[in-house]
Amino acid sequence: MALVTVFKSFNPAEAQLIRSRLDAADIDSVVNHELAGLSVGYTLATGGVLVQVAEEDADAARELIEAPPVEPDSSANA
User: Fold this and answer.
1) Most buried residue, 11, 22, 62, 73, by CB count within 10 Å?
2) Rounded to whole angstroms, how far apart are CA atoms 47 and 37?
3) CATH assignment, 3-66
């Protein structure tokens, strides 16, 4: 299974947030180079913290990542 990078960050927490969103949508993902994110120099050398998915899930993952956040429905609390 070939992995494709769908998101890159220099912040491990941001990468984990994206991974969490993908997992919630039943898209399996992995975060690579996360430990390098603890040091700015290493993060730059490795190209950032990468969120990767299977090649066949890449389009759906990118669509989800680029989608605006869903606003809570305030009428549901009324």
Assistant:
1) 22
2) 10
3) 3.30.70
| Structure confidence by residue, pLDDT tens digits, 6-41 | 999 988 899 999 999 999 999 999 999 887 766 666
For the entire predicted model, the pTM comes to: 0.80
Going by C-alpha positions, the residue among 64, 59, 60 that lies closest to residue 18 is 64
Give the model's pLDDT for residue 6. 98
The burial of 45, by beta-carbon neighbours within 10 Å (0-12 exposed, 13-18 middle, 19 or more buried), is given as exposed
Burial class (CB in 10 A: 0-12, 13-18, 19+), 69: exposed
What residue segments make up the domains of the chain, in order of their start?
Answer: 3-66
- d(CA 40, CA 15) in angstroms, rounded, equals 15
Beta strands in the chain (DSSP E): 3-9, 29-32, 49-54
